Amino acid sequence: MLGIGGAIEAGVFVMLGYAVGLAGTALVVALILCGVINFFTMCSYAELGAAIPKAGGEYTFAKVAYGGFVSFLTGWFEWISNMFYAALSSVGFAYIISYLIPVNVPLTAILTIIVFTAINIRGVEEVGRSQVLMVGTLLIILIAFVLNGLAIPNTGAFQLSSPGGPLGVIQATAYIFVVYLGAEAIAVAQAEVKNPSKTIPRAILLSAIVLLVIYPLIAYAMFRIVPPEVISGQSSPLIYVAQLSMGDLGKVALVIAGTIAALSSVNTSIMAQSRVAYALSRDGYFPKALLRIHHKFSTPHVAVVVGAVFTAVLAATGVINFVGYATDFGFIIGFALVNLSLMKLRKDKPLLDRPFKTPFYPFTPIAGIVTSLFLLVFIDVGVLSLGIVLGVLSVLAYYIRMVGYLRFRVAFGGISLGLGSFTAILAYLIGTNTMPLNGVSPAVITIIFFFLLVVSIIQIIAGFLNVTAKGSAL
Amino acid sequence: MSIRGKFSLVAGLAQTVIGANAIVFAYLLYHNFLGIQAMLNVTAKDVVLYMLILIVFGLLSLISGLFLINEK
C-alpha cells in the first residue's frame, strides 16, 4: 500500500493535460512505455531490496556495490529527487483542491508540507495504518472512473493518434514518467517493514504491475469520453472528465481520489528523503545533527525537518511542469545507478542471498539503464541545467569531506581570484568598446560595465581572503 | 570579532549575494522575464550557454562566499 500510495500521485491528476498536448490519444502508448521502463528498474529494486534489507534504499545498494563517490552520488540524487517529488505532490494537491475551493496554490502546498512533516515526525507506522485505508479508497474511485469510461458507448472520440508523431509520444513519456515513481520508496523504508526479504519484492513488483495496468486504462477511459483537443487544455483532466460523465458526484469523488493520491505521495516522499538523509549522515557525508532521533517517536526528526524546509522552498514556486521534470531527472539518474549496482553485485558477490532474482539478467537491468537514460534527452533544458548544477554540488559536497575543509577553501580562493580577474578584463573590454555589445543601448552597457567592475573587485577581495585563510600556507 | 573577521563577513556576504543573483538571473534570462533577452540582445539559441556560464559562476561565488561567512 505504501508503494501504490506513493506511486499513484497527484501527477496523474494534474499533468495529463500537457502530456495529451504532446502525444494526443497516443498518451496511452506513452503510459505503457513508462510502465515498462519503470518495471525494468523495479525488478532491480526488488532484488536488491530483498538481498540488502537495510534502510536507505538506492543509497544503501550503491554503497554495498560500489561505496565511495558512486554511493554518495546515488544518495544525493535520491535525497533531492524525493524532495522534488514531495514538492510536486503538494503543488498537485493544491491544484486539485482548487477545483472545489479557491486557494493560493503555493501557500496551500507549503501548509501541506508542514502538516506532513509533523505526521512524519510522529512515525511511519502511525500513518501506515491510515494509508492502507486511503489507498484502498483511491483505487476504488479510480477503478470506478475506468469502468464508467469503458461502460459508455464509444462515441468515436478514441482513435490512436499523436499530433507530434513518435517524437511527441517519446516527449510525453519523458514528461509523464514521474507518475510511475514512488513504489521504490518501499525499499527506502524497509527497516520498518516486517519480513522484508519476502514483502519488499512482492510489494515493489505488485505496485509496478498495478500501475502499468491502471494508468493506460485511465487514459483510455478518459479518451472514450472526451476528445484529446479538449483534454489538453485542462488543468486537471481527470476531474474535468469525471464531472462531464458523472456530474458533481464524479467531480467530488475524483477530487477526493486526487487528494488521497497527492497526500500519500507527500507522506511517502517526505519519509523517504528523511531516511536517505539519515543514512548519508550516518556515513559522515551530511552533518551529524541529522542523526538525531526523537526521544518519544523514535524518528529522525531533524532529517525530516531539514528536508521539509527545502521541499517547502521548491513548492513555493507552484510550477508543476518544472518540478515534474526535475523529479524525473533525479529519479532517472537514481534508476541508472541502481541497475548498475545490481550488475556490480551480481559480479562481485554471486553468493549473496537473493530471495528474489531479476528475470532475464543482464538484459533487464541493461534495458532499465538504456531506456531511462534515453528519456533524459527529452527533458526540459532548464531542468537539465539544474541537474548539472546539482551534480556539481554533489561533487563539491563529497570532496569537501574527502579533501578537507582548508585545502578546499584555498582552492576556492584561487577560483575567486581567477573569476575576479576575468570579470575585470570583461569590464575593460566592454567599457572601452573593444568588445561591442551590438543592439544593446548605451545606458544598459554603462550599467553592465559598472556592475562587472564591482563584481570583479568583490571577487578579488574574497579570493584573497580565502587564499590567506588562517592555517593556509600563505 | 577581529577586523579581518568583519571584513571577511562583508566580502563573503557580498560574494554570496552576487552568486545567488547570478543563478536567479540565469533563470530570469531563460524564462525571458520582462523581455530581458531582447534588452540584452541575447538570441534564443545562446540562452543555454549564457545560463550555463551564469550558473557555474553563481555557484562558485556562492560557495566561496559561504566559506568567508563561516570563517572562524
What is the fold's blueprint, element by element?
The complex is a heterodimer of chains A (about 475) and B (about 70).
Chain A: H1 2-7, H2 11-14, H3 16-23, H4 27-51, H5 58-65, H6 68-97, H7 105-122, H8 124-151, H9 165-176, H10 185-188, H11 196-225, H12 228-231, H13 237-282, H14 301-315, H15 320-348, H16 363-376, H17 381-403, H18 405-431, H19 442-467
Chain B: H1 3-30, H2 36-39, H3 47-69
Key words describing this protein structure:
heterodimer; A: 474 residues; mainly alpha; Amino acid/polyamine transporter I; 2 domains; 19 helices; globular; B: 72 residues; 3 helices; 76% helix; 0% strand; elongated
Question: Which percent range fits the helix content of chain A?
Answer: over 70%
Count structural domains of chain A. 2
- Percentage of helical residues of chain B? over 70%
Q: What is the SS-derived class of chain B?
A: mainly alpha
Main sheet: strands, sense, barrel of chain A: none
Strand percentage of chain A, roughly?
under 5%
CATH topology assignment of the largest domain in chain A: Amino acid/polyamine transporter I
Number of domains of chain B: 1
Task: Give a written overview of the molecule.
The complex is a heterodimer of chains A (474) and B (72). Chain A is mainly alpha-helical and 474 residues long. Chain A folds into two domains: 381 residues, Amino acid/polyamine transporter I; 64 residues. Chain A has 19 helices and no strands. Chain B has one domain. Chain B contains three helices and no strands. Chains A and B meet through helix 17, helix 18 and helix 19 of A and helix 1 and helix 3 of B.
